[in-house]
Structure formats: C-alpha cells, structure tokens
Input
Amino acid sequence: MQLPIMNDRCEKCNYKYDREPGYFIGAMYISYGLAILQGIITFLIIHLTFPALSTIWKTLFVILVICVFGRKNYKLSRVIYIHIFPW
Ligand SMILES: [Zn+2]
Output
C-alpha cells in the first residue's frame, strides 16, 4: 500500500503546499490525534452496543478501524495542518 501523492502546487491559485523541507512532519501529530479520537469513539460505540463482547474483540475492532481510516487521516491531517500554519 502506497501513501497518497500530493501535488506541489494548487491547480487554481498556484499556492505552494510544501513550504519547506519537512513542513508536513508536524501533520503526524494531527494524524495521531485523529487516530486516537477515532479509536476512542469506536471503542465507546462497540462497548455500548455490545457490552458482552470480550475486550480482545473490541480492541481488534478498534485497531481495524484505525487501519481503515489511516489513509484518510494522512490526507486530512495535512489539510488541517496547512490551515493551522498557512504561511
Ligand atoms: Zn488554491
């Protein structure tokens, strides 16, 4: 599985996305936060819907959801990061 490829510049306004080398390293923290948030929400939904399910299955389901949303988080975290530090 390959990571999504990002354009160098915006097609409409020619905004340069990669401001400097390593600019998007900070987006890792956003991605981490998103994954944790999704994990907590998934666990709460599973726990409240199926209270009798064993913890190992709940944990495996949380890991599955985090893996499924990984690619989305990769892109979304960069979008959020570029809006936090747009200059
Ligand atoms: Zn643009």
Observations:
- The chain has a mean pLDDT of 91.
- Residues 25-84 form one domain.
- The pocket of zinc ion is lined by residues 10, 12-13, 15 (CB under 6 Å).
